[in-house]
Every structure is written in C-alpha cells, then in structure tokens.
Amino acid sequence: MTQKEKQLLLKDLCARLPYRVIVQVKDWTTLDTELKTGHIRLLQDGVIELKPYLRSMSSMTKEEDNEWNGLNIDPLLEAVKERHTRIEDLMLRAKSQYKPIDWLNAHHFDYRGLIEKGLAIAVTEENNPYNE
Question: How far apart are CA 110 and CA 58, in angstroms?
C-alpha cells in the first residue's frame, strides 16, 4: 500500500468510526471486527493491515434510493451516486452539506472508490457482515 493510499484509507476510516463499520484485520490471523479508534492508530503505525467491508454505490436498494433522494441535497452531491466526479471536489463546492456524506457512511457505501483500489472488501450477499 502506498503512502497516498494509506492516507486515503485513514481519512475514510476516521469518518466511518461512528457508524459501526466492520473491518477485516490482518496480522497473524484474519479477523472481522468492528472498527475502533485503536485500529486507526495501529494502521497508521504500520502494525496491522485492515480493509473495511463496503457496499458499492450500485448496490443501493430502492428504499435507500428513496431515502437518498429525500435528503434534499444539492444536485452536485447527487453526482456521488453516479460517480461522475470526486467527493473532494463536491465537498469544496458544497461545504455545509455533510448530511449526505454521513448518510453514505452510515449505509457503508464506497463513495471514494476504495474497492476498485483494493483498499476495501466489496460486500456481497455471501459476505455481508452487516446482516447480523
């Protein structure tokens, strides 16, 4: 993992801490557990390797889509769902609208492309740790 990838992962994980995101921790064994602040420090220090379980934007259900649309968000942020632009660019243009980002984090969506970069594990029906 490059330093740039590590920084992206750390930034993403910190925003997800309040939302019970499940991570796969790799040290001597592979363990799935809820992300804690201690994991962030250990990842930062290079002691452990971890990947969050995230949902692709395309896995959004009809109910979630209705909820998403009901947020009355700026059209710029709607582009996150379509993945036409980077989230960082959107946040610069819509500084005060964090509600959509909180919603995406709470529903464990990968809006930064971590799955494509190999920094997160794609949630599927077979490996969904959130269906407990």
Answer: 10
